[in-house]
Amino acid sequence: MTPDGRLRLPESELGWRFSRSSGPGGQHVNTTETRVEVLWSPADSTVLTPDQRDRVTARLRNRLVDGRISVVSSTHRSQLRNREDALRRLEELVADALRPAKRRRATRPTRGSVERRLDAKKRRSQLKRDRRDW
């Protein structure tokens, strides 16, 4: 974590893949690989404690492919800006996964909502009872 509270993933833990991007760019888009994919493995991370590693793995399990998280960026025309964008999004994703979940405060339904629900149930059962009597 940096002094401003932002998570920083070391460059040594990141894997990068580049490919040609679709979209605007004219002839330039056909010759340069501006689409960026950053890969990071939470299991192999030295930045996280074992508890943090478990939390990130559990919260991001839907995004894990072969144990790695992948973030793709192709919004900018330059590879450098796409690299910065992909890294920022990955760090935000991991930081959100590390944030503790809010505890649910138990509440009771209001008297009005209970009465409306029971009223609707009575109307529905009466409707079905009327159908039976035909």
UniProtKB/TrEMBL annotation:
InterPro entries listed in its UniProt record: Pep_chain_release_fac_I, Pep_chain_release_fac_I_sf
Alphabetized UniProt keyword annotations: Hydrolase
Region listing for Disordered, in residue ranges: 100-134
Domain Prokaryotic-type class I peptide chain release factors: 7-130
GO biological process: rescue of stalled ribosome
Chain ranges passing through the membrane: none
Catalytic EC class: hydrolase
Record family assignment: Belongs to the prokaryotic/mitochondrial release factor family.
Name of the protein this chain belongs to: Aminoacyl-tRNA hydrolase
Species: Aeromicrobium tamlense
